[in-house]
């Protein structure tokens, strides 16, 4: 019971696990996939370890991270197309 409750504290981790399942189901492992990860997702379970797990199966996956650090800010989102977004926001303009 406590394990199930503790999973609720890590929605980012659940999101990246779901992403891996979706990529396998869609057989999208051999084409380029662009994924955006925001800082809230990273703080709640999207780790470099989980990203590398996806990269083992999908070597063409590209991760773009947005965060508070200047070098992680997205400069112009109108020119970037994402296949998947792991974010606390429902809309990228938020």
Q: Main beta sheet: strand number and arrangement? A: 3 strands, parallel
Oligomerization category of the chains in this entry:
single chain
Strand order of the largest sheet: 2-1-3
Structural class: alpha/beta
Shape: globular
Overall radius of gyration: 14 Å
Would you tell me the overall average pLDDT?
A: 79
Flag low-confidence runs: none
SSE order: HHEHHEE
Q: How many individual helices?
A: 4
Determine the N-to-C terminus distance: 35 Å
Sheet-strand content, in percent, reads: 5-15%
The portion of residues assigned to helices is: 25-40%
By DSSP, the count of extended strands is 3
Outline the fold blueprint.
Layout: H1 2-7, H2 11-25, E1 33-37, H3 39-43, H4 48-57, E2 61-65, E3 84-86
Parallel strand pairs: 1-2, 1-3
Task: Explain what you see.
It is a single chain. This protein has helices at 2-7, 11-25, 39-43, 48-57; strands spanning 33-37, 61-65, 84-86. It has 94 residues and is an alpha/beta fold. The model has no long low-confidence stretch (mean pLDDT 79).
């Amino acid at each position: 019971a406590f394990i199930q409750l503790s999973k609720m504290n890590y929605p980012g981790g659940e999101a990246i696990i779901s992403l891996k399942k979706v990529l396998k189901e869609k057989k999208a492992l051999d084409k380029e996939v662009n994924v955006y990860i925001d800082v809230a997702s990273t703080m709640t379970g999207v780790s470099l370890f989980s990203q590398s797990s996806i990269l083992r199966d999908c070597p063409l996956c590209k991760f773009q991270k947005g965060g508070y650090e200047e070098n992680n800010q997205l400069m112009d989102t109108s020119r970037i197309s994402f296949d998947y977004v792991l974010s606390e926001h429902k809309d990228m303009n938020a």
